[in-house]
Amino acid sequence: MKTMNCKQLGGACEKEFQANSFEEIAELSKQHGMEMFQKKDEAHLKAMNEMQELMKKPEAMKDWFESKKKEFDALSEN
Questions:
Q1: In angstroms, rounded to a whole number, what is the distance separating the alpha carbons of residues 58 and 64?
Q2: Alpha-helical runs (H) found in the chain
Q3: C-alpha–C-alpha distance, residues 78 and 7, integer Å
Q4: How far is CA 5 from the centre of its chain?
Q5: Which of 2, 25, 36, 43 satisfies CB 3.0 to 4.6 Å to 12 for a cystine?
Q6: Rounded CA gap, 35 and 61, in Å?
């Protein structure tokens, strides 16, 4: 198991997620983002807008995703 927090994954808070793979941790982060969207959390909405801008540039989004995966892979196990 490895741990990353919301901010490390492009979000706005220190909530921690634990998973065995980057794909799992990305899904946990996505679920958290949806919860924060429903609560209309201002900080998370701002972070989501920034991610949407990044998504407009497929190459930039791919680079961002790969850098986060490398960051996850470099973490030590809990």
A1: 10
A2: 22-38, 42-55, 58-74
A3: 19
A4: 8
A5: 43
A6: 22
Instruction: Measure the CA dihedral 75/8/3/39, to 10°.
Output: -170
Max CA pair span of the chain? 35
Summarize pLDDT for 26-75 with one digit per residue, the tens.
Answer: 999 999 999 999 999 999 999 999 999 998 999 999 999 999 999 999 99
- The owner of tokens 């900080």 is 43
SS (H, E, C) 37-51: HHCCCHHHHHHHHHH
Decide: pTM greater than 0.85: yes
Name the one residue in this structure whose structure tokens are 């972070």. 47
Distance (Å, rounded) from C-alpha 16 to C-alpha 49? 21
Residue 25: its pLDDT value, please? 97
In three-state secondary structure terms, 33 is helix
